[in-house]
Please model this.
Amino acid sequence: MYVKHSTNRGTLLVCLYVDDLLVTRNNESAITNLKSSKLKEVLMTDLEKLSYFLGIELKRTEEGNMMHQSKYVFNILRKFNVQHCNIAKTPSETSMKLQKDGNEEVNGIMYRGIVGSLRYLCSTRPYLVFCVGLIRRYMMNPKMSHLLAAKTIIRYMEGTLNWGVLFPNHKDDKNVRIIRYSDVD
Model:
């Protein structure tokens, strides 16, 4: 991520990932100037308004901009063959106690794939960080109880397929606040 501050033109943000480039600024003409100068140097395609970047989708609604990963969640369900499963009401059971030792071992490669997929999903689902962090502790030697806990999170994801983070529209940008809540338990 590159950030360029200018007193008369505001701030320019450029996110670069391999060959994908995301540009934003509070001044539309500055973005147009940057794109035209880059087109002279490299071959690129301008996809106009942002709708999809690195597995994260952006949807504009009347309420604001919704950032979600519905397509990514659907791909996780399909990859681990759990689409059409019984939906879990919560991502983990409150009484769940995972232990290092215990029941039968499971395929470690598959387990690490599930945990990695769920970890990336935390970008738009920050409330999953605790649950995913909990199952992540057992990546070296996963047991059946750990896999069942991971699958519970996936089953929860099917029921919340279209959830994400809403950035609401505000007429007065000075009143925009980001509020975070946390339950330490």
